[in-house]
Write a structure and sequence with these properties.
CATH superfamily: YqgF/RNase H-like domain
Helix content: 40-55%
CATH class: Alpha Beta
Structural class: alpha/beta
Number of domains: 1
CATH architecture: 2-Layer Sandwich
Strand content: 15-25%
Strand order of the largest sheet: 3-2-1-4-5
Shape: globular
Distance between the termini: 13 Å
């Protein structure tokens, strides 16, 4: 079963897909969209194209495990995505994914605009890796 992971953001949303066996991260992409309706449309188009069996979305938590200040926004977006996609969205702790994504990209000599355009896809891949490890 293919799994789709989402790193939801205000301007860029990273997306990562597992392979068909749901065991490793396959391809990634970034959707550059600020408008929520257009973002939902882009995500549902990807869902129709890729046919994932499960949706996982990063969820902001504080380092102590409590819900972060953006938690309500993420819950509301996940609910809208569930309705648009017709399938449930699993919320997954995304603590440190963006920090780790920046660290990984720095180690690979990605800087400036090149990093800015890639970091959300790497964060989505890290969300997916974390979820796959938990299985």
């Amino acid at each position: 079963m293919r799994i789709m992971a989402i790193d939801y953001g205000d301007a860029r949303t990273g997306v990562a897909f597992s392979d068909l066996t749901g065991s490793i991260v396959g391809r990634t992409t970034v959707i550059h969209e600020r408008n929520t309706e257009r973002l939902l449309a882009a995500l549902t188009a990807l869902i129709e194209q890729e046919q994932p069996g499960l949706l996982v979305m990063g969820f902001p938590r504080n380092m102590d495990g409590s819900e972060g200040p953006r938690a309500a926004l993420y819950r509301a977006f996940a609910a809208r995505l569930e309705e648009a996609a017709g399938m449930p969205v699993t919320l997954w702790d995304e603590r440190r994914t963006t920090v780790d994504a920046h660290r990984i990209l720095s180690a690979q000599n990605y800087h400036g605009k090149k990093r800015k355009n890639t970091v959300d896809a790497v964060a989505a891949a890290l969300i997916l890796e974390g979820y796959l490890r938990s299985l």
